[in-house]
Design goal:
With about 280 residues, the protein is an alpha+beta fold. The protein is built from twelve helices and 16 strands. The protein has helices at about 10-20, 35-40, 75-80, 80-85, 90-95, 100-105, 110-115, 120-130, 145-150, 225-230, 240-250, 260-280, and strands spanning about 5-10, 25-30, 50, 60-65, 65-70, 130-135, 140-145, 150, 155, 165-170, 175-185, 190-200, 200-205, 205, 210-215, 220-225. A five-stranded antiparallel beta sheet has the order 4-5-10-6-7. α5 packs antiparallel against α8 (about 120-130) and α11 runs antiparallel to α12 (about 260-280).
């Protein structure tokens, strides 16, 4: 096999066949907004690139009360989709904050997830919404919750083979409270220093099944389970909001890096959760 081989898959099944054939030597390429940067900077040099940009994975559709998004769908397609705006406005809001228009035009939601950055904007929103992923490989098909997909920084269940075929997002309940915020080094085209997504269904003014998701504050995008559980069956009050925000910060496990200190990330997490829950309670 010649090093630097470029192959095109015309279907997900063909991509799976090629991944099974070349194993760890191969990498999947869609929009290339992350992968090609690493290749051009010579920090990564795969022997085989499998292009799936024309394999029929770019679609958005409804299946019952679920929004189904093909992994090859670009962020711009999601932002412009009336169906996505109707069923998952939290996701639309989150991906609209990704990078620049040029990058959103080619970057795909499947690629954003497969890259497994702890700061991935789409992952935080999908965690909050309780989304799942349909993964296909030569061995078959399986569906996993987004929170089970990430196994470490840059690591996912795909490390054992396969690719994401679909993202399955439960429809947001009518009247549910939700919000997304990120802090970056710049106002635009910036990776998250901290991001928070909250989805809070309400019944009679009480929280039912709230989910608080955090990005860039742990080795993987994460759910703040205790902070969410504190809200269950309760009406949002200033005291409860403070308690939940502090619990979210305590659950985080950030690091110091060039974008921010661990101390700052914890404080910012607490502040963003407080801001969003206050917004939802208004």
């Amino acid at each position: 096999m010649t090093k630097g081989q470029f192959l095109k898959a015309n279907s997900p099944e063909e991509a799976c066949d090629l991944l099974a054939q070349y194993g760890s030597k191969a990498r999947v390429l869609a929009g290339g907004t992350d992968l090609m940067v690493a290749i051009n900077q010579r920090t990564f040099s795969p022997e085989v690139l499998i292009y799936i940009g024309e394999s029929g994975l770019d679609y958005i559709k409804a299946e019952g009360d679920k929004l189904v998004i093909g992994a090859g769908t670009t962020f711009t397609e999601i932002i412009r989709s009336d169906l996505a705006k109707d069923k998952a406005p939290l996701l639309v809001d989150a991906v609209s904050h990704i990078a620049s228009v040029a990058i959103r035009n080619v970057g795909t939601i499947g690629g954003n997830l497969a890259n497994a950055s702890p700061a991935a904007d789409s992952a935080t929103a999908l965690l909050a919404l309780g989304a799942s992923l349909k993964i296909v490989s030569k061995e078959g098909e399986r569906t996993v919750a987004v929170e089970q997909f990430f196994t470490g920084p840059g690591e996912t269940l795909l490390d054992t083979g396969g690719l994401i075929r679909e993202i399955i997002v439960p429809e947001q309940a009518a009247g549910a409270g939700w919000g997304y915020r990120k802090i970056g080094k710049r106002k635009a085209q910036s990776l998250s220093v901290v991001s928070v997504a909250i989805y809070c269904p309400l019944a009679g003014g009480e929280c039912r099944g709230a989910r608080i998701a955090l990005g860039a504050v742990a080795p993987t995008p994460m759910l703040a389970l205790e902070a969410s559980a504190l809200l269950e069956g309760k009406t949002l009050s200033e005291g409860l909001i403070d308690e939940s925000a502090k619990a979210a910060a305590d659950a985080s496990n950030p690091i110091d890096d060039v974008r921010g200190s661990a101390w700052y990330r914890r404080r910012a997490t607490e502040a963003l959760v407080r801001q969003l829950l206050t917004q939802i309670s208004a």
